[in-house]
Structure formats: C-alpha cells, structure tokens
Amino acid sequence: MKWPGEVGSSRRQRSATEIAVVERPTKRRMARFRSEVVAILNMPDAPETALDDKKLVFIVGSPRGGTTWLQGLLSQAPFVSTTTETHIFSGYLRSASENWSRLKERPIGLSSVFSDDEFFAWYGDLPRFWLRKLGEQTPDARVFLEKTPRHSAFGAQILRVFPKSYFIHIIRDPRSVAASLRAASQSWAKAWAPGAMIDASMMWENHVVQARSIASLTDRYSEINYERLHADGATETMGLFEWLGEPIGRAEAETYVAAAAFDKMRPKATALRKRRRVDKQFYRRGEVDSWRRELSATEIAIVERLTRKQMAQLGYEPIAARPARIAAAARLGAYGAADKLAKAVRAGADWIKP
Questions:
Q1: What's this model's pTM, rounded to 2 decimal places?
Q2: Is residue 12 situated within a structural domain?
Q3: Do 32 and 181 lie in a common domain?
Q4: 222 three-state secondary structure
C-alpha cells in the first residue's frame, strides 16, 4: 500500500478521473452542479452500512490545501483509523453516478432495468465494502477518516450512501495553494497539478465552492482554517475532536500536533534516494506566507483577481499594489484574446476538415 506522498516509478498519462476540473465555476456550471445534487438527494435511500457507534469523517478541500497535513494530525489519535486517498466516489464510481443521472430520463441506459433503489444499492456496495474492510483491519477504531480532495464535489453522493457522514473542510489561502501547485507541477505531480496561475486559481475556487456547498446538505459539516491551525494547532485540534463528540485534552492535542509537524512528516533525503518513490517536494515548508517569496507581484495580483469573491468571503486580504494589478489585468486580457483566437482557429479547422 502506498501512503500519501508516494508516487509510482513510471510516468502515467493523464486521465479524466485524475484531473480536477479547473474551469471557472460559471453560473451555468454551478446551476447544473446544484441540480445534480438535488436529483441525487431526492432518490430513495440506499441501505447504509451498520456503523454502530463509529463515525465516518471525510476531509475535503483543495489539493495542496493542507488536507494531508490535517489527515496526519487527526490520525495521531489512537481511536482514529485512516488510509490513503480512496477516490471511491470521485474516481471509481464517478461515471456510474453521472451516467445514471444523465441517462435515466432517456429511453436508453440501465434505468429500463433497474429502479433507483436497485441502482444505488449496487452503487453503495463498493464504499460499504471498503468501510467494512477498514473496520476489520482496525476493530478498535471509533473514527474512520478518509481524505480525497476531489471528494469536495461529491458530498451528495457520499451522503447518499453514508447519510451520517461528517465533513471537515480545510481552507488555505489561495496564493499559498497556487504556489504549492506550481511547485508540485514541476516535480511529483506533473500528471495533474496546474503550473499556470489561472488554472491553479480555478482549481482552488472550484474545490472551495463545491466543498462549501456540502453545508447545505448536512449539519455535520465543519470548516477549519489552515492558517489558524498552523498558529494554534492544539486549540483547533481540540475543537475538531469536540465537534466530533470525541473530546481530548490539551496535552493530547499538543502531542498530536508535534507528531504531525512537517519536519517529522517530510521524508528524509536518504530514504528518498533508497525508495525512489516519495518526492521530497510533497512535504514542503508548510509555511503560511511562503507565497510572498515564491510568487511575483503580478502572479499574486492574478490569483487575487481571479479568486477575489471567495477571498473576501473567507477573510483573506489582497495585497497587490496598483502597478501589479494593472499588469495582471493586461496579462489576463492578452491571454483571453489569444485563447479566443485559438478557439476560432480550431473551429475553422474543424469546419474545413474533410
């Protein structure tokens, strides 16, 4: 089993299930997303795995947004069981739920054979089997913890199978995420991480908007700020476990925070050379404001311009000066014009294609 930070020795090609959508969440796209959520939640309940007194917790948020760090921190508790990213709903079952919603109103597809009950009974078999196996491996655990950033867009599907699920959404400054995504795109995450500021900004915004929409589906949703967790890890950790109904003391929380410190989670250089599977860039500095050094003034202004609505709602203050904002606007405008021209050329080529 490979744990977070491990990558295969051979380079893989991109696939639709590995790449998070990076388009801007337009009104049309978000309306379609909301309609799909409503359709899924209105379907009859599928049988849920008997969790008894166990709790199932999903960590969601943007890639490079602190999800792995939070997973490592919470899993220090002896009553928490976790595993690597499963991608169950966002990968293995994605096409199944999308095609069921898309084809059920048409005279084709499996809806001519299966009812909603029957389809989602099958749909939930894989997640329930995963949970059962995890429970068998860690029978003393009271909390099962799963972390897949792409599950930010699959809250409705998760609740369809596990209605009692908890969701913890960790939110990090988009400028930090953009800087981290670019670094990842140049090393271990070339297959999926965007290196351009516009794509990184849209990836962050999509995940934040979709994860925050889970709050409208369940009251078992909580947000935690990466920067506050970094500043006072013990207090924030105690608050999360209190929210989960598993209170811990400050001494325990401080022990968990210390055990999950970046200098301890970051693989050692000698181990890297021997294993050749874990890239040292996976665990970087873990700093709150390293983006100030890693991004240029114009790049900062680009991220702030593209994510300004969400930044304002979340309390992140823009810092770009007027010259940088002007340069960012000019660069984004030039890109928009060039992109429009490229699409027109492509359309023309398709038109004359024999």
A1: 0.82
A2: no
A3: yes
A4: strand
Q: What is the pLDDT of residues 297-307, one digit of tens each?
A: 999 999 999 99
Domain end position, chosen among 251, 267, 288:
288
- Give CA–CA dist 232/194, Å, rounded: 30
Domain boundary among 267, 288, 309: 288
DSSP for 296-313, written as a single string: -HHHHHHHHHHTHHHHHH
The two most distant CA atoms of the chain are separated, in Å, by: 72
Tokens of 338: 């060039």
pLDDT of residue 75: 96
pLDDT in tens, 306-350: 999 999 999 999 999 999 999 999 999 999 999 999 999 999 999
Question: Would you state the structure tokens that stand for residue 57, as one six-digit string?
Answer: 């917790």
User: What is the chain's length?
Assistant: 354
Q: DSSP 3-state assignment of 104?
A: coil
Confidence tier at 36 by pLDDT (50, 70, 90): low
- In contact, 21 and 291? CB cutoff 8 Å: no
Q: Cα torsion for 4, 83, 13, 338, to the nearest 10°?
A: -70
Contact between 309 and 37 under an 8 Å Cβ cutoff? The reply is no
Q: Are residues 260 and 332 in the same domain?
A: no
- Number of domain units in the chain: 2
Domain that holds residue 190: 27-288
Contacts of residue 318, defined as CB under 8 A and 6 or more positions apart, other chains included, come to 304, 308, 311
**pLDDT recorded at residue 263:** 75
- The backbone torsions φ and ψ at residue 80, rounded to the nearest 5 degrees and listed phi first, read -110, 130
Residues 194 and 268 in one domain: yes
Reply yes or no on whether the pLDDT at 18 is more than 60.
no
**Residue 278 shares a structural domain with residue 319:** no
pLDDT digits (tens, 9 = 90+) for 64-109: 999 999 999 999 999 999 999 999 999 999 999 999 989 988 888 9
CA distance 40 to 282: 35
